[in-house]
Please model this.
Amino acid sequence: MASLCLYVGLLSSMLSLTCIVFGMSSSQWMQIRSFYFAHDVGIMRHCDVLSQACGDMEWINDLVDAQYATLFRSLQAMYLLHCVGMLVSGVMYALYAIRFFEAKGGFRALTAFNFLTMGAGIYTLALYGTKYRKFFGLTSPEYDDNIIINLNGHGSHHVADFGYGFIIAAIGCVLSGIVTICSGLEASKAVDLLRNMQNRLTVWTSPYTLFVDQEA
Model:
């Protein structure tokens, strides 16, 4: 029977893939509300708040500053690799769970693969979260404190806020880290060590063992 660690890795990979796909299809990574620019922008999609029109990757180029277009494209490619990598990882976990593969040595390669997959997600989220002002032209001094005063002088709001799409994508990245840890445990002797310790504790605390100790 497959170990609990294997099942945790399988479940985490499926949940991570779900979060990643949702993040890829969402425009709610960043909510931008300036005087002349009101869009919800994701990694692959965006929506114009005023016209309610939404577009995919080919339209996003119109929103990204030209000098950062290549970097933004690299983020899109890395997040796509993050998605494909977690899909492959989930399939591999499923094959191990049904004992299609028996060799434990395969988990070493899977651990390295999962680490690279997780790294692609971290790279995407880190750069998107720290360079969004440059990506979308929010570098004007009036946006430095991320607060914009309404035209009538009453009230204010944030120029840019992270949306739920970015948060869900971050959750998917955390889950991919759990997947990496689980595959690493399977690849090492840690799982066998924990199992042996559990068996010894069971033997030491069983009534028969206590009875034998008392007789001795």
